[in-house]
Every structure is written in structure tokens, then in C-alpha cells.
Amino acid sequence: MRPNSQELKRKSSHDTEREFGGTLGAIGIPIFLPLTVLFLISTSRSPEASVLQWPPSLPSTDQLWDPLALVVLLCWIALHAFLYLTPLGKVSEGLVLRDGTRLKYPINGFHGLCITGVLLMFLVGLGAPLGYLFELLLPLAVCAIAVSFLFSVYLYIRSFLAPSHALALGGNTGNPLYDFFIGRELNPRIGNFDLKYFCELRPGLIGWVVINLGMLMKEVELRGSPSLAMILVNSFQLLYVADALWNEEAVLTTMDIVHDGFGFMLVFGDLAWVPFTYSLQAGFLVVHPQAISSFRAAIIIALNGIGYYIFRKSNSQKNQFRRDPSHPSVARLETIATATGKRLLVSGWWGLVRHPNYLGDLLMALAWSLPCGFSHLLPYFYVIYFTVLLIHREDRDERQCRTKYGLAWDTYCRRVPYRIFPYLY
Ligand code: NDP
Questions:
Q1: What pLDDT does 325 receive?
Q2: How many beta carbons lie within 10 A of that of residue 397, not counting itself?
Q3: Coil, strand, or helix at residue 212?
Q4: What is the pTM of this model?
Q5: Nearest to 285 by CA among 221, 212, 236, 209
Q6: Which residues line ligand 1 (CB under 6 A)?
Q7: b vs e for 276-306, b when ≥16 Cβ sit within 10 Å of the residue's Cβ?
Q8: Tens of pLDDT, residues 8-22
Q9: What is the pLDDT of residue 8?
């Protein structure tokens, strides 16, 4: 059922519930997080690599700016925009929008990753100094932050030309700072080019594994060969990114695409936060090499494998169930009915905890940090931050599901009492 115009007006009015600390968060986060990115990169390469060191080791201005970084970043975004537009892969439809239409999306991110891989092999074969990414990382992060701000301003301004049904319900509060931060327009497009979908999994996510590869090449330059710790970090994270792109279609039903507007929060997250903080372990290993035994490596590989198995199986089970509940792989699972007509799984992975996919993701996050040893806290930044992010995300999703499913959601919570960690949380 489509909401009528009165409902839309009510939802988009100034009393819309605000997330991420409301106006205060909308002012603080865009200042604090970019500074955190720069702080983490510069700390990870300092000899102490101490997040508790005071005053923190701050980079000088000439370490922050290099025109080459801007050229590299813009060429990188242009390459992926080009790959997005190539007629490779299939085209899928998103969920039904408030105006009853469905948008079409190219499913060719994995092709983009493979083509990028071939191009990089070719460039490295020609002698391109990929290890120079280590030196270029801070200026690249500065440019990505600047591009995120400018792009978010563009998105905010253009959102005033969009019809009301194209606005995200939570991003139209009338408070410019909050709306700029959270995003007003749900699916901003230039022609058929979907700006949010493009940023979600391509320049930043593929950029992350390329930065990792750059750190590996820097290690080769410095020490003659890559360390086992560096190979583990590179392989685990490449598997994660390749998996996300292989299953790209699943992003069409995520909160980011379906619910959130496209504003600074997602733009910065996609273009700056993910590539530059998720690659911290690889950067750390360049300056702080770690020797790990085969036994420890085997335990870490097993942990990553278990995490990946839980993550992939649970995500696939839900996606399959949502696409076709009568499919043999999910038809026998126990479910409960909801007033919306959709059913909720209460057995299988989704009967273990209410977010088994987050559990798997967190086990992998831990496995990515362990190759960096126990001498520093900094390489564990990702797993600590990610735990906070997923607990907060779970809470947001929980509230949305309670609004959507009402009593049926309460029944599900009684049947499956733990949110992420069995018997713990
Ligand atoms: P989820 O895939 O967890 O989806 C949540 C939705 O699933 C709910 O809104 C509901 O939607 C549906 N659902 C919940 N419970 C049930 C049930 N019992 N039966 C059937 N459907 C149910 O959402 P996310 O987008 O948060 O996560 C997707 C993946 O991305 C996760 O693996 C997560 O770990 C990962 N992720 C990674 C990040 C990173 O930075 N690396 C950041 C964020 C997420 P409905 O009922 O409407 O279908």
C-alpha cells in the first residue's frame, strides 16, 4: 500500500526521528571522522603507532597535499564510472519505490574488480611503482575527504529539484545540517547512473584492496618479499571485497539503498572511511613487521573461514528466503507470519541470533587484526569500531523492524532472544 500525500508530509516534517545524535552528531561527525582518518593513517606509520600517545603525531602540511593524489583519485573514480557504464553483467531491478516504480541497476561490480586486477597486473608488469601508494596515502585521504564534502554539497543542492516521493523519509527534517549529513534524496541519479549505488561498492571498496596491494608492494620494496602477515591480511580482505561484489545484487535490499538518503554520512563512508581506515592493518605492517608462526597462521585462517562461512550462509539464506520462500533450500525452515504478508525466519541461521550475518562479519574482523600481533592496539581499531557500528546498526534495524512488523517482531524476539552473540548479547 502506498502512503498518501498527508502521510508523506507527516513523515517528512520536522518531527522526524533523528539518528546519529541529531543536529549535534550532524555537526560533530563530519569534523571528527575526517580528522580520525588522518590521525589513524599518520599514527599507524609512526614508530610508536600509539593511539594513546599525546600529543598525537600530526603530519606536516607538505605530507598532506600532493597534486598527484588528486589526479590519481579522479582517474580512479572516472575508471570505475566507465566500468559501471559498460554493458557487462546483467541488469536487476531494485525494490518497489513509493511511487510504485522500480529502478534498474547494472550488476557488474565483480567485472569491475576483475578488470581492475588485470589492469594493475599490466601496470606492475610495466614497472609501475604501486608501492608508492604508501607515500601517497595521506594526500589521497585528504583528497577523498575533500571530494566527499564537495559531492555531498552537490547532492544536498540537487535534492531540492527532486520530487517529494524521491526523498528519503528520514532525511527531510528541514534542518539543513542534519539533512546534509543524513542525505535528503534516496536514489540520486544522472540519467541512468545511480550515484549512491555506484559509490556503495565500487571506488571505495575496490580502492581498499588496491591500497592493501600497494602496501604489500611497499613491503616487497623494503624487504624483498611480502610477509605472511601481509599476505593473510591482503587475502582475507580481498575475499571479503570479492564476495561483496560477487553478491552485488544483495546490496539492492540493504538499509543503505532502501532506507537511507544519500548524504555526507554515506558518501564519506564509501569514499574515504572504508578505503583509508579498513586498510590500516596493511599500512601498519609496512612499518611494524610481524613474524607469525604457521600454527598461529592456521588458527587465524580457521577463524576467518568460520566467520566467512557464518556470514555467507546466513546472508544467502535470508536473501534466498526473501527472493523465493518456496525454494528447497529454505522451504523447510520454520517461519512466523507478519501483518505485512512477509514472513520472518525463526529457525536456521536466523533462529540462532537475530543478526547471524553480523556475528560472522565480526569474527572475520578479528581475524584481520590478529596477523598484526598483540604489541599495538591500533590494528584492532577496525574490529573495535566495527563492533560499535554493528551494535548501533542492529539497534537501528531492530527499531525499523518493530515499526514494520509490530507484534510479530516481538514474537520473533521472544523466540530468538540474542541479537548478535549467542548467550551474550
Ligand atoms: P541485514 O542483511 O542484516 O538485513 C536486515 C533486514 O533483514 C531486516 O531489516 C529485515 O528486512 C530482514 N530480516 C531481519 N530478520 C529477519 C528474519 N528473521 N527473517 C527474514 N528476514 C529478516 O542488513 P545489513 O544491510 O545491515 O547487513 C548486510 C550485510 O552487510 C551484513 O553481513 C553486514 O555484516 C554487512 N555490513 C558490512 C559493513 C562493513 O562496513 N563492512 C557495514 C554494514 C553492513 P525485511 O524483513 O524488510 O526483508
A1: 87
A2: 17
A3: helix
A4: 0.90
A5: 212
A6: 254-255, 311, 315, 318, 321-322, 342, 344-345, 350, 355, 357-358, 361, 393, 397, 400-401, 412
A7: bbbbbbbbbbbbbebebeeebbeebeebbee
A8: 344 444 445 688 888
A9: 38
